[in-house]
Design brief:
With 268 residues, the protein is mainly alpha-helical. The protein folds into 2 domains: 1-49, no CATH class; 64-263, no CATH class. It has 9 helices and 4 strands; from the N terminus they run E-E-H-H-H-H-H-E-E-H-H-H-H. It has helices at residues 51-55, 69-79, 83-91, 97-108, 117-123, 139-151, 156-174, 188-203, 213-222, and strands spanning 8-9, 14-15, 128-130, 133-135. The protein has a two-stranded antiparallel ribbon. Strands 3-4 form a two-stranded antiparallel ribbon. Strand 3 and strand 4 (133-135) form a beta hairpin. Helix 3 packs antiparallel against helix 4. The radius of gyration is 19 Å and the shape is globular. Mean pLDDT is 86; it is low at 1-5 and 47-60.
């Protein structure tokens, strides 16, 4: 028995009646609506038979549209398929590494295509829900920074230093908080969000495994430094979703176009 919603046959790990949701249509396992916790109950849990309802933006939750988990996973899968990622990964293995640095900087700089925080805050607000937990609005961008940077061939140290230098520039220009040398001058919560993105890549794409909502949520729970990220309290008011919900890859891209255009053909 799982809560009051679904009955499970524990010996076979299957629901007696079909689940009411297909949590991740792109994952063939999700199409089997009799399977419990993706047939891996040692790793996943689904206490009431509707885990997606509680953690990835189901319309049955009044705050469903503030959950950007599905957008984050789709955005991650889309962006690492772009030729710019492959180009940077190649450059990181040859003397063209400085060009890889430049390309990545153009993509993740303030208001760049992969600087998602401002649009997330404008459209969704603060906080947002990711994987069933509430986070400060910039967290998704920090996770994806680590994920993309690792896919592009940068080392963790390079990514930490890059994030720390950006934070230092914000400190000099705007008086923003900075961290310690232990986090390469980045704030602690941002640093551990970046680390989670690195971890996420190594546990999925780095092993040739797809990144799905199920996998993302499971890895987030397992992440050793989750409590050091920018966790927030659940908001009291949820508002109403914008007309363009559900969110798609590109919806939160920053407005600043990377230059020169010939290096970034995916960003016209």
């Amino acid at each position: 028995m799982t809560g009051t919603r679904q009955l499970v046959r524990p010996r076979v790990g299957r629901f007696i009646s079909a689940d009411t949701l297909v949590p991740e249509p792109g994952d063939p396992q999700s199409l089997n609506r009799l399977s419990y916790a993706a047939n891996n109950p040692l790793r996943y849990t689904d206490p009431n038979g509707t885990a997606y309802e509680e953690s990835a933006g189901s319309v049955y939750d009044p705050g469903y549209w503030l959950d950007i988990t599905l957008w984050l996973v789709r955005e991650a899968n889309y962006d690492i398929s772009l030729p710019e990622i492959r180009a940077m990964a190649y450059m990181n293995r040859c003397p063209a590494k400085p060009l890889a640095y430049y390309m990545f900087k153009e993509l993740v700089q303030d208001s760049g295509p992969w600087d998602f925080k401002d649009e997330i805050r404008r459209v969704v607000g603060d906080p947002v829900r990711i994987g069933g937990r509430w986070f400060e609005y910039s967290t998704a961008g920090n996770i994806l920074y680590g994920f993309y940077g690792t896919a592009a061939g940068f080392t963790p140290i390079e990514l930490y230093i890059g994030a720390g230098m950006a934070q230092l520039l914000d400190h000099l220009r705007e008086g923003a908080e900075i961290g310690t040398l232990a986090t390469a001058l980045d704030t602690s919560d941002d640093h551990y969000a970046v680390r989670s993105g690195i971890y996420l890549y190594h546990q999925t794409q780095g092993r040739g495994k797809p990144l799905t909502v199920w996998e993302f949520c499971a890895l987030l729970v397992q992440y050793d430094h989750l409590e050091r990220m920018a966790l927030r309290e659940k908001p009291e008011q949820f508002g109403v979703p914008p007309e363009d919900w559900p969110f798609r890859p590109g919806d939160f891209n920053g407005p600043r176009q990377p230059r020169p255009a010939r290096l970034f053909r995916s960003f016209p």
